[in-house]
Amino acid sequence: MEVTELKRTRLSFDELTAGEGRTLWTNFSKWVDVTFPSPATEWNWELFSNGAVGYLPLGDRFLTIRPRVPIESIFQMWERAENVTLDRPPGDVALETVEDLLEWIGSQLGKGVLHRLGRGLYRTYIDIADELSVVRGRIDLRATLRRPWRVLLPCEFQELTADIPDNQILLAGLVASSFLVHKPAIVSQVRRGRRQCLRSGITPLSVEPIECVGRIYNRLNADYERLHWLCHFVLSGTVPTHEAGHAKLQAFIIEMPRLFEKFVATWLAKHVPAPMRCERQVRLPLDGSLEFIADLVIRASNGKPAVVLDTKYKIGSGPDAADVGQVVAYAQHLGCSDAVLIYPSKDHRSIDTQVGDIRVRTLAYALDGDLDANGSELMAQLALA
For 193-248, what is each residue's pLDDT tens digit? Predict the structure, then answer.
């Protein structure tokens, strides 16, 4: 069962069961708006994904949400947004769907972990305090004197172990991937890596995506960086919800509006002319707990706001009054005279108008074709001095 992001889709009454509709509405309403059959929909189901792509488990089958932009563009956006460069898939590997991308990432992660297991997992020393029958390391004299009647000796020592965060991240990525890949050869590869990690004494833990990045590497674990980035992608999109039963069906969602905003922010931060700078998620306090949060603000060399930008992940539509009002409010709060709404496609109604002293424009960062060339075109239209 398939729908396409940013496109309202009607399904006949018998294409979706009442239980599946209830699951969508209860568990996944954050990503898919569900309208139940009624006279208003001519007794059809109506689904709308507001920018989420991936797939969601509905009992024994999935609802697949296809992206409107090329999957290769999503891959590149993620690389730019997360500041990582991965080996490109070879020419004989076609990445046309989210499933294709997950299969390729699962394959790369499985191969990489198995190769590392063959060479030996990275190990390091950790500090351990324990009570032993023989001395190991050094004795904790203070604890010994407090309890002289105890036979066991409180010792502090170091132990070389593979059960460290670097390897726990790999195991978490493999566990998540094992529920997301479907090709038998890749499933076998991923599960074999998971079993061998467990046999090596790695503790299975819940790992947050942020824990996969910003880590320190050396010559002994340099190859872990790429594997951790693959884990980061898988864990970032994995939704920890599944139905009870014999098999756990894992949801996987890429939130395109958030990815688009972070991608544009990262690209602009690298390309705005010095000494200007681009800031993301700028908080604009109002009163008490109230505040605006501007997506992007480009500041001049003296720190004053030159342009405020708001990304709108909408395809095939123009700005509405609320979009314009939002970015104008940001500009007024910042004392900025240039406000821009950025869309992911040129297929929208453009405006260039004045609202009081503020110039309001719509520009595009197109997500098809060469992303760097499209970014350069956006920079030229921004005309930053």
Answer: 999 999 998 999 888 888 988 888 998 888 898 899 899 988 888 765 444 333 45
Residue listed under structure tokens 């998620």: 281
Its pTM stands at 0.80
Which residues make up the CATH 3.40.1350 domain(s) of the chain? Answer: 272-382
Judge whether residue 24 has pLDDT over 80: yes
The 3-state secondary structure of the chain, one letter per residue: CEEECCCCEEECCCCCCHHHHHHHHHHCCCCEEEECCCHHHCCCEEEEECCEEEEEEECCEEEEEECCCCHHHHHHHHHHHHCCCCCCCCCCCCCCCHHHHHHHHHHHHHHHHHHHHHHCCCCEEEEEEEEECCCCCEECHHHHHHCCCCCCEEEEEEEEECCCHHHHHHHHHHHHHHCCCCCHHHHHHHHHHHHHHHHCCCCCCCCCHHHHCCCCCCCCCCCHHHHHHHHHHHHHHEECCCCCCCCCCCEEEEEHHHHHHHHHHHHHHHHCCCCCEEEEEEEEECCCCCEEEEEEEEECCCCCEEEEEEECCCCCCCCCHHHHHHHHHHHHHHCCCEEEEEECCCCCCCCEEEECCEEEEEEECCCCCCHHHHHHHHHHHHCCC
CA 97 to CA 55: how far, in whole Å? 11
Average pLDDT, the chain: 85
Residue-level pLDDT at 72: 84
**Mind listing the pLDDT tens digit for each residue in 267-325?**
999 998 889 899 999 888 888 778 888 899 999 888 899 999 999 998 877 788 888 99
Q: Is the pLDDT higher at 223 or at 90?
A: 223
pLDDT at site 298: 92
pLDDT score at 170: 94
Q: What pLDDT does 310 receive?
A: 93
Query: In this structure, what are the phi and psi dihedrals at residue 272, rounded to the nearest 5 degrees?
Result: -65, 140
Going from the C-alpha of 292 to that of each of 120, 256, 282, 300, 340, the distances in angstroms are 50, 21, 8, 21, 16
Q: Which fold has domain 272-382?
A: Trna Endonuclease; Chain: A, domain 1 (3.40.1350)
d(CA 374, CA 381): 11
Max Cα-Cα span within the chain: 85
